[in-house]
Amino acid sequence: MASATTEMAGTRVQPVETQGPPEPRKKGSVPWLKLIALFLGAIVFLFPFYYMVVSALQRDPNPNISGAFPNPGSLSLDNFIAINTAINLARTLLNSGLFTGGVLLGTLVFGGLAGYALAQLHFRGRQALFYTLLLLLVLPFQLLMIPLYVLIARNFGLGDTLLGMILPFAINPTAVFIFRQFFMQLPSEMFEAARIDGASELKILTRVVAPLTRPAILTATLITFIGPWNEFLWPFLITKRLELEPLAVALANYISTVAQRAANPYGTILAGATVLAIPVVILFLIFQRQFIQSSIGSGVKG
Amino acid sequence: MMSSRHALLAVGVVLSLGLAACGGSSLASTGSAKGAVKIWYSNNAEEVKWGDAVVAAWNSSHSSEQVTAEQIPAGKSSEEVIGAAITAGTTPCLIFNTAPAAVSQFQKQGGLVSLSSFSDGNSFIDGRTGNRAAQYKSPDGSYYQMPWKSNPVMIFYNKDIFTKAGIDATNPPLKTYAEFLSTAQAVVSKGGAKAAIWPSPTAEFYQPWFDYYPLFIAQTKGKQLVEKGEPQFNSPDGLAVANFWKQLYTKSLVPKEGAQGDAFATGQSAMAIVGPWAIPVYGGKVKWGVAPVPTKDGMDASAIHTFSDEKSIGMYSSCKNRGTAWDFLKFAVSKESDGKLLDLTGQMPMRNDLASAYPDYFSAHPDYKLFADQAGRSVEVPNVPNSVEMWQDFRAAYSKSVIFGNQSIDEAFKGAADQIKTLVKS
Amino acid sequence: MTVAAAASARASRTRLRSLLGEHPVGYLFVAPFVLFLVGIYAYPFFYAIYMSFFDYFFSAPGAEVVRPFVGLGNYARVLQDPLFHIAIRNVVIFLVINVPLTVAISMVLATALNAAIPLRAFFRAAYYIPYITASVAAVGIWLWLFSGFGLVDKILGPLAPNPSFLINGLLAMPIIALYVTWKGLGFYILVYLAALQTIPKELYEASKVDGASPIQSFFAVTVPGLRPATLLVVITAVITGANFFTEPYLLTGGGGPDNQSVSPVFLIYRFGIEQNHPGYAAAIGLLLAVGVLIISGINRFVLERP
Fold first, then answer.
1. Which residues of B touch A253 (CB under 8 A)?
2. Staple A110 to which of A34, B315, C32, C240, CB 3.0 to 4.6 Å?
3. Is residue B66 part of a domain?
4. What is the pTM of this model?
5. How many Å lie between the alpha carbon of C251 and the closest alpha carbon of chain B?
């Protein structure tokens, strides 16, 4: 049966095969114009991040333009130390991680399953469910906020808990949308062949589909990560216990009260913001390399 | 088989009756129930120190009535958090930064406990706060908040900038509008400041409390924005205050955009209009002096009223052990606790006898004496229905006419007055 | 199993199939998600609909309060509210600027970043970074750039607008739209990057054989090939755009000068949460949702040709 599927897959699944590895460059032709344009664009995009890091490293505040290009002598880690004293960076980072991790788990597992089902499985109510999904994507959080808070804090009794924090974000609807779009790209003949061969849906899922899902999982991870990682309002509402506070909340509280007393208030805030941003950058750098490799190793070379 | 089922049923009935009886008795006496109590206080660093000290002092002598404390931010989000918590029934017994402007809303939600319902409620509050307490009564005559501490708003000025501009830094001319304007002009052109004074020009509903309202209170010798259902700002005095601010904006002495960070602490603004809570912030950064807010033709400092920027303590209806909560509340505003508050934060407890109760403190901190004195003449926001909406509508009119000059002040204020009159009637 | 038994078993399976569809196991797979939607979203959503017909306000559990039924009164008042008109105008300006720019720039950038260029990882990270930066930092930078005392103002010198960008009734919204576009691009580039992996290489080779220039193949192969992704991008951009809140809240301090940069969701926050009139806010929210659904429907119709 395994050979049958790969054979079927191999002859059919070209679409997933190879746009990833880019066309080999002809020797000597570096696309200079493109590079320069990209570089200028990158500066525009990177500059704020650069400015954030530079300001975080400056001992004294400098709201002028020269603040963007400080001399190395005035750099120090004072702001980072200050923010760490005010907010326990390690603990809040851990909480952010737990919160985000829980959301990722829910989204990748249950969202992935749902996206797959919406794309490739035919059952009554499939379209209706998809439209409902779209409808719910439209609703802004501020509209749902208070009833949701009552539901989770009062009715479910999950105030002051990690689960209560995770629940409203547990399955990211955009990720389900992405999974669905992705799975729709896979040709249904592949599945048909496997079913004709007598494979159960579960076997199809684990043997045929799972190896192919890496790009979708990566994309879904990267887009799902940001929400809970930077989320301030909901965790802040659902729990007041300092031990559970994620970094985004701690930073926002810090800004509204304590910041002004620091020697370099703006610098300390940005130091906190830098710490908040770094894990995501690292995650992205690791993952985006996987983007290329995954399409090579998708296991469908005929 | 049958009999054991009957037996189970019987047991069940008895148990539930028993539970109901227990529940019944505790429900009937929530007014005096004792036990563990939870409180929230703001996360202002000094207030945290104070809170921890007071809670520890209480807990050491009340082992069966322990108090646990949590922090919530002092900023604008605190109202959302409290409102949401009221709706979910998750409010603690006491919240130590209940804003007076939000009390009418929380009361409407059924979230607050009337402190007047305690046998010594009225007498305690009146005794402690004196005749300023009346401003904190709700329209039905009861107290739904305990007036706690105020931060009477005054004008801070940067002595260095003033000296550089050639102005006397010990007794600067800031009494009348004319004096203030020319001083403002001088500090911007000669003192090197970006702004003479930099109140936030943004549109949040509470911003008028730190630009228009303090001067309005001073000019009208202590009127609130609305009194007995009638807007008061559409009077010659009210319009005079608005025109004064407008001049500051048109002469570019005050920026129309918000500052990044604290403009006074970073030396970008020569003056600030704020209360004593800011002193730890300014700390070593600025050599500051204090003067009362200006009035049109000048008044003696001992006659000037200002905005109190007060924070109250509320007891919330989700509280089970109200007896303990009330006892702890009285403890937290006792002479001793108030003294600690003054010592640690520099904010003015709402005591009648403030200056005389803590003579040592004030002789050691003469700067704060000014604020204690001013606190005796501070005015609150009106305790009316829809007060948040009222301030929002006022801010819109003020912003349009005074800050951005897109409408005449007379027209804008008249429109706001009409709107507000309907709002506070409900 | 006897033949007869097997036949009847098959018959009942087919009946089940025709009732539930070919793959009833699909129900199992979507069950957690459906549970999530019902449990988390459906309740607040229906509650919002309910609230919109009353002069509603949130109250403590057990409190006895009177909330008069007003039928369509909230909707009528919303439609006449000048603030609502400004908010809708702002959403339109926003979408008109943001959506086309987002689609165009992210598509082009994703294509460029997909090719073999040196430092590709660096470039990809660069374009992604604004997306992951917390709003507080990104807003701070933008303020530093565009405030009346900011960099852009200084560079423009005499050409600088007065009043300056963020307090200028005409310019505030476009600046916000640019800010959000800049900040959100990382997400859409990612979506396009993933989608680009699915375009068969053969199509590019074929077009090259036909003598097409890179630009021509872009329009002939890439753009059509990305159509499903574009649909996702457009719909997501429209939804995110219609729901923008943080910018009026943080960037223009509570709705901007003279309330010029309010957005519908910001109004929901102000009326529903700050002023405790959630019935009114719910009416705004539902009207907004209907509007967005209509726009999304149109987009889908235009983009998803069978």
1. 43, 73
2. C32
3. yes
4. 0.84
5. 10
